[in-house]
């Protein structure tokens, strides 16, 4: 080979490679913690969307039957015709939801009718599954989504 060809085939020096590795390490230190918090944010958003969907089904139930399901009947009244309490006379064939979803933390949604702030309360207790809490453990309620 000619000498001029060998000079043009110069590679990276160890220092150049070290600088790139350090820069990548700094970027990973900044970006990774932010990405790790995203799944929890996504779960909270999913819970809010599910609560809105259940609220729509509850509104249709009331439109057809004149009242919301009782606490005793629960959200199950949206998937199958209640057999306890005030039995609806104009219950929609097939129900109002195919099945009642669980919240993103695999807990049942809490439904109370009448509610403390209106016709009903619909909520998820968040990541810890316990009432109250802050941050990722904070409750997600229908009245906070209005």
Concise summary:
By secondary structure, this protein is mainly alpha-helical.
Helix content: 25-40%
Strand content: 5-15%
Helical run tally: 2
Computed Rg: 27 Å
State mean pLDDT (0 to 100 scale).
86
What is the β-strand count? 3
The rough form would be described as: elongated
Q: How would you write the strand order of the largest sheet?
A: 1-2-3
Q: Give the structural class.
A: mainly alpha
Provide structural commentary.
The chain is mostly helical. 39% of the residues lie in helices and 6% in strands. A hairpin with an 8-residue loop joins strand 1 (110-112) and strand 2. The longest helix has 52 residues, at 14-65. The model has no long low-confidence stretch (mean pLDDT 86).
Write the layout of secondary structure elements.
Layout (H helix, E strand, L loop, with lengths): L2 H5 L6 H52 L44 E3 L8 E4 L15 E2 L5
């Amino acid at each position: 080979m000619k000498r001029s060809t060998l000079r043009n085939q110069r590679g990276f020096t160890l220092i150049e490679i070290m600088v790139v590795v350090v820069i990548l390490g700094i970027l990973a230190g900044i970006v990774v913690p932010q990405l790790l918090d995203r799944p929890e944010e996504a779960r909270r958003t999913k819970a809010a969307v599910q609560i809105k969907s259940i609220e729509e089904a509850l509104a249709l139930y009331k439109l057809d039957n004149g009242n919301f399901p009782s606490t005793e009947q629960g959200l199950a009244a949206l998937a199958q015709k209640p057999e306890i309490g005030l039995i609806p006379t104009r219950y929609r064939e097939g129900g109002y939801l195919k099945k009642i979803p669980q919240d993103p933390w695999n807990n049942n949604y809490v439904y109370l009718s009448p509610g403390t702030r209106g016709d009903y309360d619909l909520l998820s207790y968040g990541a810890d599954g316990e009432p109250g809490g802050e941050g990722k453990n904070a409750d997600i309620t229908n009245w906070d989504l209005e």
